Amino acid sequence: MTARLAFDLGAGSGRAVLGRLGDRGIELEEVHRFPNQPVQAGPRLHWDILRLLHEIKQGLLQAKRHNGGAEPASLAIDSWAVDFGLLGADGELLGNPVHYRDRRTDGVMERMRSQYGDEWLFSRSGLQFLPFNTIYQLAAMSEQKSPQLKQAQTLLMIPDLLRYFLTGEKRQEFTNATTTGLLDPATRRWDNDLLKAAGVPVRLFAPLAQPGDAAGTLSEAVCAELGLSASVQVLCAAEHDTASAVVAVPALEESFAYLSCGTWSLMGTEVPEPVLSDEALRYNFTNEGGVEGTWRLLKNIMGLWILEETRREWEREGHCPDYAELLQEAQALPAGGPLIDPDDIRFLHAGAMTPRIRDYCRETGQPEPQGYGGYARCILESLALQYRYIFEQVQQVSGRRFNGLHMVGGGIQNRLLCQWTANSLGLPVWAGPAEGSAIGNLAVQWIAGGELSGLREARRVIRSSFDIVEYEPSADGRASDDYGRFLRMKDSAGQKQQTL
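RESULT FIELD:
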């Protein structure tokens, strides 16, 4: 079987996954995994982009070793959205990409919304208002008269940049471009008026490549360094990892709701055209490009980041229960404990989470969580209830009704969250596959290679290749009480908190 290689980069780790497609379906082999840790340098939080490049090269070497000494037929890279690198006229990187959780964008989105108006910005971009969107990062650089922005000749999103290091080819891929807030969803091209509003030179942006397009071969320098040949084809995946994850949703029906669950949670549905309605604007939805001309109508939810950052806080203090123990403690506690709005903006940035959770509870007249399990229960119950809150909005904005929710991504390994989500929705949750982004990345490569006919066949093969766990909602009636309490808590917060 022909082996193809997916590099799937998340906000905390990355992996190289070999995929083979045969009569028995899809076979996956993780050949390399590595941490992706941001670096604080002075006032700025950066991605360690050259370390990621090094790890990708190691993944290439490991893929060859695990493939009997043969090179993979192709590779593609997917990653998180919104962040980018800038190249100068000589093609050199002008500085380490800045992390989206850096505070340089503080206040920028609010100033642009005040100056241009929400209706104008949303109608031009179709994008959710998030303070770290690329448009606000670039506007911040423009406001600060960044020398990098003045010198830059090319902007490349993170997967584009890493591909460029491998091939020397500068290609900007469509699905990630739609997360920038700089692309017109009607024309599917860069919007000059938005670029002007952000103070960004038009020269930075090139015509867009589509998922599955050829993006070159390994450069002579990379081949010489790694002892590889130029026969490895480098392709564009659906390079936003959520776009890849949605490819891997094993839905056989045309209309379905999904939740890509990890550090971030992204909930939505697949639609044939962007939805730019007043409701979509009011509920702060986003329209992002997908595969085969589809669009992802979705909303970002803060996700398991809050729990992950809380655990890092405890580790810094010298003790943190392992994940299984933490979930066991959370499950053993009685219902009716404190809740938070996971999308409160205070939970966006890195740092100690427990003081922020305590502050939120005090401000909303709730008792503070007690013990490790208390914090875990507060976070996970709140997430499950927020999922219902957004699920109902997805139905309203899309004009559709769904009979359950497909969950994909690493977060589905948290079985407690999956069950509480089913309880909250009062509908079944179908969880799987966990390796959604890597599988979707590979599926695009198989479609490009003619091994799969298209998106529909890819989803059918994915469904038959991986176990899907079904969670039925509890019949104890507790979920309605908890959801009512969650809505009252949101109401009590009122306008005091800023949310995503």
